[in-house]
């Protein structure tokens, strides 16, 4: 019997407009099974979905870099794994020197920052409904006191993403995890930030067996999460590499695949 469900957001629970469908909302609420969002997103980008689903359980942001609970318009931090500030400075300086046109964002627990509004930032705003604060990165990094959890790049195409990966590899960084969360998205978090860590925390505090947990996902960064559960439900739109970890295949994110998965593979 499944006692807890974990779900990725973009490409999984949300449709291509970044919205959770009415059918997904209905089925999740009616299941009465504790439901945790496990996302590369920042908490503020998760609030709308949390509210629509009336979630009160622990949530996982920044690929596991921040485990938290929603409390009114803020959060209660449970576990924090942020980036080392020297790594952030090295990455920002190197990328702006070698790839000045790439879209780059920095995230704290409460805010989204960029140094210019480009096509990538506009795309992200259209998906999340949020707006980045424009800053001078050098000044910001010298004065900011808040933990930085994620650096996000949005490439214009695969070639730019490949260039990013090559440039970052040459920095020989330690203590970071570099993952693709979509075809043109590259995200850097602490190497302690893994979706599996968030799952493990919830598993331990609720004394859950692997057989009592289910997870939904579609991307590379979902693989550590999918390995943690016995019921791994993969979206029809998932990357081929991710489909290898499926115990069940469901419909796509635009066809209410999470709702279909709950009804056909969990509530049976």
UniProtKB/TrEMBL annotation:
An annotated GO cellular component: cytosol
SUPFAM superfamilies: HAD-like
Signal sequence range: none
Keyword Hydrolase: yes
Record's keyword terms, sorted: Hydrolase
Keyword Hydrolase attributed: yes
InterPro entries listed in its UniProt record: Cof, HAD-like_sf, HAD-SF_hydro_IIB, HAD_sf
Pfam families, sorted: Hydrolase_3
A single MF term (Gene Ontology): magnesium ion binding
Name of this protein: Cof-like hydrolase family protein
